[in-house]
Amino acid sequence: MSSSRLLLLFLVTLMLVGHSLAKTRHFKWEVGYIHWSTDGEESVVMGINGAFPGPTIRGRAGDIIVVELTNKLHTEGVVIHWHGIRQFGTPWADGTAAISQCAINAGETFVYRFKVDKAGTYFYHGHYGMQRSAGLYGSLIVDVAQGEREPFHYDGEFNLLLSDWWHKGSHEQEVDLSSNPMRWIGEPQTLLINGRGQYNCSMAAQFSNPRLPQCKLRGGEQYAPQILRVRPNKTYRLRLASTTALASLNLAIGGHKMVVVEADGNYVQPFSVQDIDIYSGESYSILFTTNQDPSKNYWISTSVRGREPNTPQALTLLNYLPNSPSKFPTLPPPIAPLWNDYNHSKSFSNKILALMGSPKPPIKNNRRIVLLNTQNKIDGYTKWAINNVSLVLPTTPYLGSIRYGINNAFDTRPPPDNFPRDYDVMKQAPNSNATYGNGVYMLKMNNTIDIILQNANALGKGASEIHPWHLHGHDFWVLGYGEGKFSDKDVKKFNLKNPPLRNTVVIYPYGWTALRFVTDNPGVWAFHCHIEPHLHMGMGVILAEGVHLVKNIPREALACGLTGKMLMTNKHN
């Protein structure tokens, strides 16, 4: 047999072995409201199988995940989005109500089935109403395929899912945000680490400002912090994901440097930092080495960034064994950069570059879409809008209405690709009125698309907010960030050499962020601000590509609205 045939046989054998090692992992979940003490104050939270946060899903690249989800909420629908999983071939499993599927009605069961194709740190959360704010979330970890290795070494691993918590329920928050005049929900009462926080007390009371009483914890409470237990002189991987509804966060480990190695399921060129900014929807892996005084324990802290913080730090302990976890650190917790120190934040963002050997973006684009982010008024109601259109989702899921050519399901007029040239992003708009809409950006398959996210002044004078944007169904290259209003001359600043691949990216106040992706995944995909109140108030757009190529959509995914009527008609004919 020739050497070329032997090589081909070897490669085919490797593919078959890899396929045989992949597993189908089954989960059976019930979503319902439960009483839970997230921070010492009992609340009603949305749990899975009677617990909060939801169970961690763990698999290997190539595995099939099957989640049989039953809605036990009694009076409302539910869906779950698998954040960062691209859903190649299964766009109906993306878990976006009115976009990829119908909401799962009370008492009904829906089966999510999808492939986790790429190793990384991910999570899942509710994507219907403001159910993420109600606590519907959990971690999703994908290890490398059997026989493969990570491009870095570590001796142990921890996973931290970061979130924020209000004592006011998510339904009341929705009513507040939808009122005229709008009632802002305020800052969260507590920051949570793996669903645990401490309200009106501090583990580091002697250092707290303003002064808070010492938390009296025995260790068995639902809100007691999860301690990270480590051995001296070891290297640990710390997986981080932020499912916050509002807060941008900064995390630090007292006395320890961190090396960033992964962002949103993509390897990055390792770089060292003292602290890390993480925005809602982002995930990271960092490495740290336990090379400090082994007779001490150390604080791990998360703090609010990008908004004036009225929420205390969340704290837990890095416990050097064999020290007792009740031995508190002698130094105060790490102090975060000032909440509005955007230079610190931008410096961190600009350090994130793709690992050598990562895929590079196409040199040229086929289409550029510029999305202006503004706060507006519609009939007196406060809304967020993109190119002056505030998103209102239709009753029929886009995936079904586009796939089956159903008329009158959504506005077929294309939304604008840009905003007026004379719009001054640095000032209050002379006319703050916007309109509602649910049109779709129809994208050609296998095209290269550039999106420029353009921030602007909000309704208030001198106000411009951070917005972390998340794209479903794709990773994108982050080509660059800039100040002020984007112009054609800024294209020469794009990084085409080693831009990082992400699924979530931030736009800074009065700035722009440039993205590039390839339309290689047939489906209908949401692209939106990941701040829960902002999405609720209309801050998002819908992208569609190659929907005619989508096959094997489960009937139950589309059994509502006009597609539901169509399916029922076909069933009886």
UniProtKB/TrEMBL annotation:
<dbReference type="GO" id="GO:0005576">
    <property type="term" value="C:extracellular region"/>
</dbReference>
<dbReference type="GO" id="GO:0005507">
    <property type="term" value="F:copper ion binding"/>
</dbReference>
<dbReference type="GO" id="GO:0042542">
    <property type="term" value="P:response to hydrogen peroxide"/>
</dbReference>
<keyword id="KW-0186">Copper</keyword>
<dbReference type="InterPro" id="IPR011706">
    <property type="entry name" value="Cu-oxidase_C"/>
</dbReference>
<dbReference type="InterPro" id="IPR017760">
    <property type="entry name" value="L-ascorbate_oxidase_pln"/>
</dbReference>
<keyword id="KW-1015">Disulfide bond</keyword>
<dbReference type="InterPro" id="IPR034267">
    <property type="entry name" value="CuRO_3_AAO"/>
</dbReference>
<dbReference type="GO" id="GO:0009615">
    <property type="term" value="P:response to virus"/>
</dbReference>
<protein>
    <recommendedName>
        <fullName>L-ascorbate oxidase</fullName>
        <ecNumber>1.10.3.3</ecNumber>
    </recommendedName>
</protein>
<comment type="subunit">
    <text>Dimer.</text>
</comment>
<dbReference type="InterPro" id="IPR008972">
    <property type="entry name" value="Cupredoxin"/>
</dbReference>
<dbReference type="InterPro" id="IPR033138">
    <property type="entry name" value="Cu_oxidase_CS"/>
</dbReference>
<feature type="domain" description="Plastocyanin-like">
    <location>
        <begin position="31"/>
        <end position="144"/>
    </location>
</feature>
<dbReference type="InterPro" id="IPR001117">
    <property type="entry name" value="Cu-oxidase_2nd"/>
</dbReference>
<dbReference type="GO" id="GO:0050687">
    <property type="term" value="P:negative regulation of defense response to virus"/>
</dbReference>
<feature type="domain" description="Plastocyanin-like">
    <location>
        <begin position="158"/>
        <end position="321"/>
    </location>
</feature>
<dbReference type="GO" id="GO:0016491">
    <property type="term" value="F:oxidoreductase activity"/>
</dbReference>
<keyword id="KW-0560">Oxidoreductase</keyword>
<dbReference type="GO" id="GO:0008447">
    <property type="term" value="F:L-ascorbate oxidase activity"/>
</dbReference>
<feature type="domain" description="Plastocyanin-like">
    <location>
        <begin position="431"/>
        <end position="545"/>
    </location>
</feature>
<dbReference type="InterPro" id="IPR045087">
    <property type="entry name" value="Cu-oxidase_fam"/>
</dbReference>
<keyword id="KW-0325">Glycoprotein</keyword>
<dbReference type="Pfam" id="PF07732">
    <property type="entry name" value="Cu-oxidase_3"/>
</dbReference>
<keyword id="KW-0677">Repeat</keyword>
<keyword id="KW-0732">Signal</keyword>
<feature type="signal peptide">
    <location>
        <begin position="1"/>
        <end position="22"/>
    </location>
</feature>
<comment type="similarity">
    <text>Belongs to the multicopper oxidase family.</text>
</comment>
<dbReference type="InterPro" id="IPR011707">
    <property type="entry name" value="Cu-oxidase-like_N"/>
</dbReference>
<dbReference type="InterPro" id="IPR002355">
    <property type="entry name" value="Cu_oxidase_Cu_BS"/>
</dbReference>
<keyword id="KW-0479">Metal-binding</keyword>
<dbReference type="Pfam" id="PF07731">
    <property type="entry name" value="Cu-oxidase_2"/>
</dbReference>
<dbReference type="Pfam" id="PF00394">
    <property type="entry name" value="Cu-oxidase"/>
</dbReference>
<keyword id="KW-0964">Secreted</keyword>
